[in-house]
């Protein structure tokens, strides 16, 4: 799943943005430089979510991303200077992040607690595939793998 | 039409690994799917919604399956996001190394995207699956409406959705139409090759947002031999629902004081004697049916007692 798709995705239950966490595998697949397409996509993006996603996949493009999205005047400037040879650093970073970075294995967390698994680059957003935090306890009992963070307090409880 | 796949099993069960392999090995299946996708892309008419024809668009592929329709989009230079419920079909799509992104989701649950994300949507042979209820709590009407409503939201204004489907009967087309109209879509049905029973294909061409005056309505493709006017009208348009003339009726009733206005100073408005009487008669009849004791009916029933009693 490209980070562009992730940026447009929302939680099917709560309609809130999904945060990428526990990324274990990332693919970089180079594609042709698409300045027109990226410029069209910038107004549709959730910029802070993109920055968080870039941190989650540990991309080195994060330094080239400004804190705030480019303003309309800056967009016009970028449009006038789109050059195949000498790409502006923002455009190069967006090309790399939006179109070339694929999350292969990871999790999509909603702010309400439930999360969805990404396997082979396919997020499973089916209602019965959502994992709720309260289910983690029962998942551990049945032998399913659980995050280490949640496993530790449970061990302490049984020890005392 | 006796063996329709959607009447056999739910899509996530029907499209197993055996069925999915047909979509890579059977040349005929691949050919049909590819041609349907090419025609859908043609009907999508991206040049009117996307600003330039040279720039790639972001397209949603609903029920992408093994990504055959996505390949057509990729060849045209577009980026696409595919959604499907069958894990076996998606696994084949991963094997084939398709260019688009894949998401596993039930379309009847709605599309999980932010508003105004996509430049267009295509869907090949999927819509008829949504007309089936696989579990007792599923209602096709609600699911279709949910699908169209979220589709409308995630498309850009003026963008198109082209949905090819195999209707099982005439009323199913009406049913799907109604739900699309409820969700705010404007559009029509394009029937390709209407006089052939095998080559006949239905495309629901929907437009999200205000209709663009500059773009022409699509024309149905006809076999080269029959250039004359087809016997069946190939195109139907949704008629906007006529609004009742509410302005004139409100003027007429303005002079009459309504009971609510007359008794505005009271906490409860008095019920008319007739309404009280009717209620008592009804309750009396009900208690008689239940075999309970009732007072005999008289002319005094439901009347107020005089204050001097």
From TrEMBL, chain A:
InterPro entries: Trm112. Coiled coil: none annotated. Residues 137-160 are annotated as: Disordered. Signal peptide: none annotated. Gene3D superfamilies: 2.20.25.10. One of its GO terms (biological process) is tRNA methylation. GO terms for molecular function: protein heterodimerization activity. This is Uncharacterized protein.
Automatic annotation (TrEMBL), chain B:
Residues 245-306 form the 18S rRNA (guanine(1575)-N(7))-methyltransferase Bud23 C-terminal domain. GO terms for molecular function: rRNA (guanine) methyltransferase activity. Its main location: cytoplasm. InterPro entries: Bud23-like (IPR039769), Bud23_C (IPR022238), Methyltransf_25 (IPR041698), SAM-dependent_MTases_sf (IPR029063). CDD domains: AdoMet_MTases. Residues 280-292 have a biased composition (Basic residues). Residues 59-134 form the Methyltransferase domain. Gene3D superfamilies: Vaccinia Virus protein VP39 (3.40.50.150). Residues 213-309 are annotated as: Disordered. Keywords: Cytoplasm, Methyltransferase, Nucleus, S-adenosyl-L-methionine, Transferase. Belongs to the class I-like SAM-binding methyltransferase superfamily. BUD23/WBSCR22 family. This is Williams Beuren syndrome chromosome region 22 protein. It comes from Cyanidiococcus yangmingshanensis. The lineage of its organism: Eukaryota, Rhodophyta, Bangiophyceae, Cyanidiales, Cyanidiaceae.
